[in-house]
Write a structure and sequence with these properties.
Length: 171
């Protein structure tokens, strides 16, 4: 017997980015993005730790949204203080697959090798991928390499509003 839901489910938005942040600009972008995800009733999926993950989670909580942190280990205390649902995996970096595979949309901000692995997996899984331009790291590297990547592999957002608009569009 199938269960039919009478309302649409909230969008699950994965946000991938650096675990350590040094730029106040990237912190602000991540927090503003999180706030907008919360305002649009999206559910945040992330790696649950610091940096971009903590900043975006803080923004979601400011809008009374829901955050899910998929941790690489068994230590719940490693989750940032804004995570509502902690999922411990003991899988290390392999947990990146679960972050993106459970999402409807995957967004990238700045980042390094872990972020690159998440974004690559998301593209390979044909997820909608949105990259926030001018945030640095592997995100800008991918944007600047767009001529060498399939033209429909990702959407380039120049600001939080365009990222949110694309994320919550019907497709």
């Amino acid at each position: 017997m199938a269960i039919i839901l009478s309302k649409s489910l909230p969008k699950r938005i994965a946000v991938c980015g650096s675990n350590v942040l040094t730029s106040q600009s990237v912190i602000n972008i991540a927090e503003n993005l999180g706030s907008e995800i919360g305002k649009h009733n999206g559910i945040l999926l992330c790696g649950g730790m610091g940096g971009v993950m903590e900043s975006v989670s803080r923004g979601v909580k400011k809008s009374n949204g829901i955050t899910v942190g998929i941790l690489p280990n068994e230590n719940k205390s490693d989750a940032n203080p804004y995570i509502d649902i902690i999922i411990n995996t003991s899988l290390g970096k392999i947990r990146n697959f679960f972050v993106v595979s459970m999402a409807d949309v995957v967004m990238g901000i700045a980042g390094s090798w872990g972020t690159l692995s998440e974004l690559s997996m998301a593209m390979n899984l044909n997820k909608k991928v949105i990259l926030l331009a001018n945030t640095g790291g592997v995100v800008d590297l991918l944007i600047n390499s767009k001529s060498q990547i399939a033209s429909d592999a990702f959407f380039i957002a120049n600001d939080v509003n365009s990222a949110i608009s694309e994320a919550f569009s019907s497709n």
